């Protein structure tokens, strides 16, 4: 089983205060950190990383076609991801590949392409406290999580969150500054499963949190396709009648 | 109130047997026919037409920005609709413009962009009988429709139909050749309402049918935005706290 | 158009501190207060009241059968509402009567009967601050409401809230004590519309709030049946074939 | 793992032509037949039977409390199932017990209690042909099923089927007499999973069909609770604040 952790990997390489802050928590990038942390908890999973500035955005066909679940972290360079790559990923997801969209990935092309909506929200970056509530305790992604847990310093993502109505809300967040948010939402798109999870940020050590890692790992297991993924666009086959047609069209 | 009926308008101009068959029922195109037929029933609505081979695909900004509900019929030239136009339409729909997708429009770029799924189905063109069932008799689009009605000769569109789970199924179809289909499905995407309706075809006089016209007109009324449409992408505003933050981030 | 405001009307008549606190804000009961406040804003609606200790719980057949929208407030005496009355209300709702369930009505028999779930939640009564967020700004019940509004002192109702997944979340609440809640949720059940709204309590003057009244009035208008309500249980009719059966059962 | 197959078991004991017809296919009752057929395919599951005329309707507390998945077949005696038993089952389902509702069980008290709607439909018993389509090929209940399969002689169940909108439609049926039906629909209610499946009838050997048995067995596996079931009604606990309240209510 192959999980590919895709990271834009720009913030972590910036030569400024923001870049320094990122490198403090994620010296080799969020993707590298997540790979290490999750690998330690799930030795049965083969974690790989990919990032925007690698050839073919780190996602050549052989990588896409051998990925069972894709994690996506992006922020300032969503527009640099080629449309053709987005369409390729879209059809692999429809064919069964899982997609876990992290934090600012709500504005990525791939998430927008799967949702149809704008995926808009409001935000604030003052490092306030966030409390994440488990609102669907029976959902596989909620297994082992407490009633609620705290992220001490976070970027606030607030309602209204413009997503379709068929999302299953698994987590909701409370922020000290007065906002609320559907922070963990699960979707089905044809054979693929998609989970959006907002906690996680480049300058806070949120991905170091045990509960956050547990959510992501649960989501990976939930989104794993039960059968081989087919990346081809679902055909629109022309089919023969399966019952006898007694009143044929005289013109045909 | 402005309704724009967009038609690819290629089949009706073909110099072959298919073109002849189309012109028999729709001498000036499906769009022109629908405009005439619906105008007679809804004199309060200003119907306009647009087609692919007009400048800017018939949809320059002033037309888009004054359209309350857009009808979409396309088939062989979906790929010729520019991506930039699709994105413009997408954000107008999210801002409240209604979208009625007709028949082979299930494979249009705009429907796919709003749904996320492949919108795939299976099909057969032998002119068999279709029976359309009203399965949500309380829905506004079903008002005035009988329990079921017959389309004598139709192109079959069959399950599995790959659409998201938040669609409200208003009509389901039975085909003599043994298939079934969710033939009328209603969606919300942000402020916009979308209705897909499968009956309708270029070489059968299905849009001449009284019940089919009633469904389309009901759908137009249902999808009409209650307030002014804003075509801008929903912003992701940065907002101030609305409650006092007592535990500020020491690093900020 | 007739709206019946049903109130358990027990707290307000208690001869104790709680009763006193209730009477301070609702001297003649929550139902009487709401009737007066809403009548002033909607002179086209005929508001009526009913309560548990009236004959037939205030809901004899002629009242039920002339009610277009029913408001329900109950708390300590849910179990005293007869099952037969609940079944009568249930079938009138399925036939089109609107139902607005207020605050502690989440545990009423009628709400449980319409939802199937336990409708459980967690709660706390320390009079903390609540902030109500509009999360579906395009929904009819949200019209005219601000991005968020404050209820200065409230009873907290918190997640997990055990309701079915087809509820459209219109409002979500933030509480100073750290909880979140889906505080306004809209459902369809056959021809009937149901709205649950949590803000509102017997000892806080929450129903005096302009925004709270606006939500309730919007919900009444949204839930008003477009056509005459039929209280009868939907029949399971035996029907004749509408297409010819060519392969009959030899045994029949 | 314990699966309890509950059958009303009245038709099969009637001393008339209908009873004879039933006994031809189900000499010891539908429940006994299903137990035998499914046991042969799933030796890891402990199948038990229960019926209406046994003491406590065959469902004393120790049986209920050790059942992981309950199958329900009833028809003419739905009203004889005591309300208190229905409430007990309801809370066990909400606590995680799976429920598979078969054929005429759509009108059972327990299905109505879980859905809220009337669960009405239209029907016809002329033994016509039914074709069952797999419309959600990715769903666990659809695994191993063909694109469509035929039930040669069936009782027709037709739309409109009055169920809530959160049902995932896994199968849809075509009938020779012209009707269509959502014949396999999956629901979540709190921790419990519910599947309704219409094919199956007392006088046709539909439960002998390999595909029908496969659907039922898939549904049992899908509905099996991952953890121990708790039959208690979900409490509405009073909880302490998890965040400090800085603006307490002066009156408290």
Written account of the structure:
- The structure is a homotetramer of 252-residue chains.
- Chain A is built from six helices and nine strands; from the N terminus they run E-H-H-E-H-E-H-E-H-E-E-E-E-E-H.
- In chain A, strands 2-1-3-4-9-8-7-5-6 form a nine-stranded mixed sheet.
- Chain A is globular and about 75 Å long.
- With 252 residues, chain A is of the alpha/beta class.
- At the A-D interface, loops of A face loops of D.
Attribute tags:
homotetramer, 252 residues, alpha/beta, nine-stranded mixed beta sheet, 23% helix, globular
How would you characterize the largest beta sheet of chain A? 9 strands, mixed
> Termini of chain A, distance in Å?
51 Å
Secondary structure: helix percent of chain A: 10-25%
Given the C-alpha coordinates, what overall shape of chain A results? globular
Adjacency order of strands in the biggest sheet of chain A = 2-1-3-4-9-8-7-5-6
Mean pLDDT of chain A: 95
Counting DSSP E segments of at least 2 residues, the number of strands of chain A comes to 9
In the predicted model, the low-confidence regions of chain A spanning at least 5 consecutive residues are: none
Quaternary state of this entry equals homotetramer
What Rg of chain A, in angstroms, do the CA atoms define? Answer: 20 Å
Note the total helix count of chain A: 6
Largest inter-chain contact set: A-B, 54 and 54 residues
- Please identify the structural class of chain A as seen in this structure: alpha/beta
Order of helices and strands of chain A: EHHEHEHEHEEEEEH
């Amino acid at each position: 089983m192959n999980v590919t952790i895709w990271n834009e990997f720009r913030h972590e390489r910036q030569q400024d205060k923001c870049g320094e802050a990122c490198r403090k928590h994620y010296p080799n990038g969020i993707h590298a950190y997540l790979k290490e942390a999750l690998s330690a908890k799930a030795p049965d999973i083969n974690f790989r990383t990919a990032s925007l500035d690698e050839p073919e955005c780190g996602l050549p066909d052989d990588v896409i076609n051998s990925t069972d679940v894709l994690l996506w972290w992006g922020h300032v360079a969503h527009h640099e991801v080629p449309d053709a790559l987005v369409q390729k990923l879209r059809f692999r997801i429809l064919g069964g590949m899982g997609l876990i969209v992290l934090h600012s990935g709500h504005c990525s092309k791939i998430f927008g392409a799967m949702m149809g909506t704008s995926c808009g929200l409001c935000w604030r970056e003052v490092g306030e406290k966030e409390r994440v509530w488990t609102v669907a305790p029976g959902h596989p992604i909620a297994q082992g999580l407490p009633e609620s847990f705290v992220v001490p310093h976070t970027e606030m993502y607030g309602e209204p969150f413009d997503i379709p109505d068929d999302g299953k809300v698994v987590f909701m967040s409370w922020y000290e500054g007065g906002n609320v948010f559907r922070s963990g939402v699960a979707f089905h798109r044809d054979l693929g499963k998609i989970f959006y999870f907002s906690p996680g940020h480049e300058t806070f050590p949120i991905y170091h949190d045990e509960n956050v890692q547990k959510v992501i790992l649960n989501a990976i297991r939930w989104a794993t396709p039960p059968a081989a993924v087919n990346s081809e666009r679902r055909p629109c086959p022309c089919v023969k009648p399966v019952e006898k047609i007694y009143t044929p069209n005289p013109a045909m």
